[in-house]
Design goal:
CATH topology: 60s Ribosomal Protein L30, Chain: A
Strand order of the largest sheet: 1-6-4-5
Distance between the termini: 14 Å
CATH superfamily: Holliday junction resolvase RusA
Number of strands: 6
Structural class: alpha+beta
Strand content: 25-35%
């Protein structure tokens, strides 16, 4: 990948937050839903982006988590939500969505998540649920 390149991909479905590790008598484990969603992100990346090796230079990650308004909302409220007059401030928490994306792409899109020197992320309403991710390699 050359400097200043952008890798852009989309994950269909409702964006999910990384769940806390669970503790049981045998130790700790990551919930199955989190593992499944991280695997979906990884598979979407590999399916949509063709790179030979993980990026090794500094990167910026841009994440847009899109959520469809509930069907129970009025058409007027849905329109206000989609154009951005009403902000998405409900669960899931944005920082946990970011963590899910970082963990899913570590060692796949980039060599190590320590290479991430900036993250830009937001939640918004949209006509469909999806997660948009852009990885930008930055000149050193």
């Amino acid at each position: 990948m050359s400097n200043n390149s952008h890798l852009v991909f989309c994950v269909p479905g409702k964006p999910q937050a990384k769940q806390r590790a669970r503790v049981c008598k045998f130790g700790t484990y990551t919930p199955k839903e989190t593992i499944n969603y991280e695997n979906l992100i990884t598979m979407c990346f590999l399916d949509q982006i063709k790179i030979d090796n993980p990026i090794e230079s500094p990167i910026i990650i841009y994440i847009t988590a899109r959520f469809a308004p509930a069907n129970s909302f009025s058409a007027t409220k849905k329109r206000k939500m989609i154009v951005g007059n009403i902000k998405h401030t409900q669960k899931p928490d944005l920082d946990n969505i970011i963590k899910t994306v970082k963990d899913a792409l570590n060692k796949v899109a980039y060599k190590d998540d320590s290479q991430i020197y900036a993250i830009w992320a937001k939640k918004e309403y949209h006509d469909k649920d999806e997660l948009l991710v852009t990885i930008k390699e930055v000149c050193e």
